[in-house]
Amino acid sequence: RMSLILAQYDLTFSISAAGDVIKFIPLPAAPVLTRTSPVGANLAAAADRAKRAAPAAECSTAGAKLTVTASAEDQDRVAAALKGASSQKTAAKETKKIDKLAAQNVPVGKLLTALGQKLDLKVELDEAAIRAAGISLDQLVSVNVQNGTLDDVFRAATMRTGLGYRLHEKSVEVFPVDKK
Q1: CA torsion angle 67 38 153 104 (round to 10)
Q2: Does the predicted TM-score (pTM) go above 0.70?
């Protein structure tokens, strides 16, 4: 509920590690994901590989874990670099789990398209059926998903819009809810 109120002011919030302080922060300009991975004893080398794979990513270490905050594309590059792989197939598979996604007051059509690009999915919008159902792809939506799946992300993006979706391996169909 707080996210909905703060979004009106282009803000969101973060909670301290102790859980006793809430801090208001500006909404991010673009959605980012945060992933934490155990990397073993060679933490410095893993952090270095992550920064070389995605220079724009924010990397931090704690214990034997590496935390990376970056776009989905950069997360894919980091995951491939940490595994020593360059395969897009390996990286794409790892985007199935979303650690954190926040977007506030974004047109649903643009959000779905951006999610498709970030998650390496083809978004198939049935625009004719959507228009015929009187649904606008310009209606504003807000999404805040933590530790979710692709299904959680697309459910949040289409909630209360009159749109439904069907996930496939490499694509997602978006259509009016009454179309089955």
Answers
A1: -10
A2: no
